[in-house]
Every structure is written in structure tokens, then in C-alpha cells.
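dumping this here before i forget
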Amino acid sequence: MTGLASWRILVPGLLVLAVGLLAAAEFLPHRVAEPAGQDAETATTSTESDTPRQTDPFETSPAEALRLLRSAEPPVFLDVRERHELVRTGTLPGAVHIPLGQLAGRLEELDPREPVVVVCRSGRRSRIAGNTLLREGFREVHNLSGGILRWEGPREEIEE
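structure:
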């Protein structure tokens, strides 16, 4: 086989491989949060202006969220479900409740300098809320992976 003939076979094969890898990357899980204060993106920066801006909420496991909840300086836990959902299943102790549909109009209730862990039923709405917070300048935003469905820690009951 001549050099030109082998290139005609090799190049299309490489293109198919590259397209397949790009397509598969969309199905990979998003990055998992590092323990508080040890984020790989911000660990080496010394000034706030040098800190790379977080672009997606960190995916935080229920076990890591429970560790954060029990820490000396817990983050703000933000539950973005509707009130009737909280009445049915409860919420995380001390969580701030702002339904997703009201979040944009109630951002002043939250401090953008504080870390926030966003919670919903399964993790979809909390990811949307987390992206909203990041667009509005919040510094550290986590999404509780699997939402309240996967949460095995303490719950606070909500009355009607």
C-alpha cells in the first residue's frame, strides 16, 4: 500500500473517532466538587481578580453535601422546589426556600460571596438555578446530585 493510499484510509477513520469522542463527552458526568477551600481551579490563585470564574455548578454528592452541612462553616443550602413539594418531603435543615420561578426576582436574599448548595427533587431544576446564580456573579455554587431523592441526611419538616 502506498503512502497516499494509507492516508486515504487513516484520515476518515480518525475523523470518525474524533466525532465519537466529542459525542461521548456530552454524556460524561460533570466535575465533582472538591472539598471546600480545595477547588482545583482556585487553589493556586492569590487574588480575587486572578480567580477563574466558575462556569457550571459543581456536582456535589449527597455524602459531600452532608459533610458540608455538618461543617463549622456550612454553605447556604437553597431549595428551589415548590412549597407543596417541601410539605410532602421536607427539606434540608436550615435551607432557604426560593422556588426556581421566583429566583431571579429574589436574588437579594442571598449573598453572592457565600458558597451555595442548590437542591431540588432530582437535580435538574437545581442545575438551572445554579447556572442562574453563576451568571449573576455568585462565586461558588454546588448542585446536589440526584436532589432530595438521593438525600439520606436529616430533613426539616415543613407544615402547610
